[in-house]
Amino acid sequence: MSFNNPLDTLYRQVIMDHYKNPRNRGVLDDENVEINMNNPTCGDRVHLTMKVEDGKIVDAKFEGEGCSISMSSASMMTQAIKGKTIEEALMLSQIFSDMMQGKEYDDSVDLGDIEALQGVSKFPARIKCATLAWKAMEKGLHSQQ
């Protein structure tokens, strides 16, 4: 990535902070949703556990191995979905997917740190890295509906 302006530098710092200090890393003991996914082209893998009660994501944790993009995205995603309904989490995932594909997306939704991953859309080979945890979350939540 080219980090020529202060915003790019800030985004890079946010991504590296989530990579070096991941939020919600670990496994839930009382999960009712458990998903393993991997990206065979690069070796990234994620193990996502979530506790869903009454249509709401009460907690989420992840473990895995991979590049800074995939692991920081998993950290950001678990932070973003906690406390959300299944529908809200799936809507957030669609917004993220649109952002990764360079499509217009609903920017009225506060993405928080997730916005730091916006630049990944310029690197098609890295989009799968950024979306791996999100795809795992979607798969897990669809099993709850």
UniProtKB/TrEMBL annotation:
Q: Which residues form the NIF system FeS cluster assembly NifU N-terminal domain?
A: 11-129
- The residues forming the signal peptide are none
SUPFAM superfamilies, per this entry? SufE/NifU (SSF82649)
Listed transmembrane segments: none
**An example Gene Ontology biological process:** iron-sulfur cluster assembly
Q: Name one Pfam family in it.
A: NifU_N
Recall the GO molecular function terms of this protein's record.
iron ion binding; iron-sulfur cluster binding
Q: Tell me which family the UniProt entry assigns to this protein.
A: Belongs to the NifU family.
Supply the PANTHER family for this chain: IRON-SULFUR CLUSTER ASSEMBLY ENZYME NIFU HOMOLOG
Please give the name of this protein.
SUF system FeS assembly protein, NifU family
Organismal lineage? Bacteria, Bacillati, Bacillota, Bacilli, Bacillales
